[in-house]
């Protein structure tokens, strides 16, 4: 009987590659789940809390594959730019002629991830991004102060879909000139009754960056902690089998 391949470890923790990392919303969740995390982002991210490489994420991944260094990793998380097909771009902005041209990096990201042979997830917001919606997470599932639906294409493992908890009310802010109150804050943009930075931090569960742009782009750590714990539990069962 063929034995399972032992999970790759660094200091006894499996190593995870976090591509298009931003300031580390996903990274912190994976670290809480039990991973050592290495990030990569093209922008300077001094607030990223773990080992980090500045550069093009796809070029970095291609280099890791070419050199064989990718074998050090157990799992890959990727959040490629999503502006081309997110709800705001394809809805309000396009109808009003706002915004510019955006690059869709989902397909080239998937192509490279498939070459790694590793389990991975690709994360995207609601919209028309061409990913399988194997998993959809919402802030209300974790008692957060944001709704922030995020979809995940999952490859190489299975992540249980939590029950979608009914929302408790509206997202606070202005809509078409009218102010609505509610239990959630709008974690995007600046105007229209948007939350303060401390409110964003509290709502997302993020305290290591106070940069609004980083907060409005971040995945709540609770999401990736759910994914990471599920993956590690499956892996432990496989290794023990």
Task: Provide a brief overview of the structure.
The protein has 241 residues and is of the alpha/beta class. It has helices spanning 25-33, 57-67, 87-95, 106-116, 197-204, 212-217, 221-240; strands at 9-10, 13-19, 36-41, 51-54, 75-78, 120-125, 135-137, 150-155, 173-175, 178-180. The strands form 2 sheets. Strands 1, 2, 3, 4, 5, 6, 7 and 8 form an 8-stranded mixed sheet that branches. Strands 9-10 form a two-stranded antiparallel sheet.
Question: Which helices and strands appear, and what pairs or packs with what?
Answer:
Blueprint: E1 9-10, E2 13-19, H1 25-33, E3 36-41, E4 51-54, H2 57-67, E5 75-78, H3 87-95, H4 106-116, E6 120-125, E7 135-137, E8 150-155, E9 173-175, E10 178-180, H5 197-204, H6 212-217, H7 221-240
Parallel strand pairs: 2-3, 2-5, 3-4, 5-6
Antiparallel strand pairs: 1-2, 6-8, 7-8, 9-10
Structure description:
Helices cover 31% and strands 18% of the residues. Residues 1-5 and 86-95 have low confidence and may be disordered. Helix 1 (25-33) packs parallel to helix 7 (221-240). The chain is of the alpha/beta class. Strands 1, 2, 3, 4, 5, 6, 7 and 8 form an 8-stranded mixed beta sheet that branches. Strands 9-10 form a two-stranded antiparallel sheet. It has 7 helices and 10 strands. The longest helix has 20 residues, at 221-240. It is globular.
